[in-house]
């Protein structure tokens, strides 16, 4: 199988076991460079396991993961993170006792204090997520769920990233915050970042996605352009049992 040159990430026949459980059953996933790929599916379909396998948090028992033409299947998670890949898990991974500033500082390479962080980059993040600036010196654990989600994404992009992977970014967000998150991801894409998003909110997916892959029972059962799927009500119903 020859890799397409326009793909940044490709999973080929990936199987993942967690203990005695066989979760992924031959996942084939192609992520085009510079686009937003939505990973959709019912609860328990294998979406989070797919993300964790990409990041090396769970090891593929069969198949391979290729990033920028390189096989990263056997790399440890810290080594994968050095490839300019950032991952925001569903639980956000916020350090509750640290301030927003301290949370971002932890992800800023080569900065030992806030004054060494890239001020231009920070201003850009503040424009994307005004709450990050507003609560800069507040304990992150005191923020609302939506504000924590913004801090988590801001921390992931405090350094420029080639690939951003986010698990359910709109979960629990008010409509106004969802619009803000969509604007932020659109700006990241315009800046050249490739994005993979796991989502349950189909309206969010419809507005933001370029590509879509739908999972069921640990497999990709549909892949194509998001706009085409959004126009096919019957297919959406059959794949997800949902109306988009």
UniProtKB/TrEMBL annotation:
GO MF term list: ATP binding; ATP hydrolysis activity; branched-chain amino acid transmembrane transporter activity
Which domain of life does this protein belong to? Bacteria
- Output one GO BP term: L-amino acid transport
| Claim: Cell membrane is one of the keywords in the record | yes
Annotated ABC transporter domain ranges read: 9-242
Signal sequence region:
none
Q: Per UniProt, which keywords does this protein have?
A: Amino-acid transport, ATP-binding, Cell membrane, Membrane, Nucleotide-binding, Transport
**Known Pfam families for this protein?**
ABC_tran (PF00005)
By its UniProt entry, which InterPro entries does this protein fall under? Answer: AAA+_ATPase (IPR003593), ABC_transporter-like_ATP-bd (IPR003439), ABC_transporter-like_CS (IPR017871), BCAA_Transport_ATP-bd_LivF (IPR052156), P-loop_NTPase (IPR027417)
The UniProt entry's sequence similarity note says: Belongs to the ABC transporter superfamily.
Quote the PANTHER family the UniProt record gives.
ABC TRANSPORTER ATP-BINDING PROTEIN, HIGH-AFFINITY BRANCHED-CHAIN AMINO ACID TRANSPORT ATP-BINDING PROTEIN LIVF
User: Which named protein is this?
Assistant: ABC transporter ATP-binding protein
């Amino acid at each position: 199988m020859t890799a397409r040159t326009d793909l940044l990430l490709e999973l080929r026949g990936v199987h993942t076991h967690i203990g005695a459980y066989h979760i992924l059953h031959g996942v084939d996933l192609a992520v085009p460079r510079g686009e937003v790929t939505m990973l959709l599916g019912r609860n328990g379909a294998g979406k989070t396991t797919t993300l964790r396998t990409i990041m090396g948090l769970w090891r593929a028992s069969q198949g391979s993961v290729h990033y920028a033409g390189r096989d990263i299947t056997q790399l440890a998670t810290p080594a994968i993170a050095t490839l300019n890949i950032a991952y925001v898990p569903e639980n956000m991974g916020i350090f509750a006792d640290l301030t927003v500033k301290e949370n971002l500082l932890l992800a800023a390479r080569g900065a030992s204090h806030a004054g060494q962080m890239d001020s231009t980059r920070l201003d850009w993040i503040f424009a994307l997520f005004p709450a990050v600036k507003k609560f800069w010196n507040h304990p992150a654990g005191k923020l609302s769920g939506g504000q924590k989600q913004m801090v988590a994404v801001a921390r992931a992009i405090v350094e420029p990233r080639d690939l951003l992977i986010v698990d359910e970014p709109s979960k629990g967000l008010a409509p106004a915050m969802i619009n803000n998150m969509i604007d932020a991801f659109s700006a990241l894409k315009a800046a050249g970042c490739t994005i993979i998003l796991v989502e349950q909110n189909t309206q969010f997916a419809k507005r933001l996605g370029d590509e879509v892959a739908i999972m069921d029972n640990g497999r990709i059962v549909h892949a194509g352009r998001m706009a085409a799927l959004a126009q096919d009500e019957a297919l959406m119903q059959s794949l997800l049992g949902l109306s988009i």
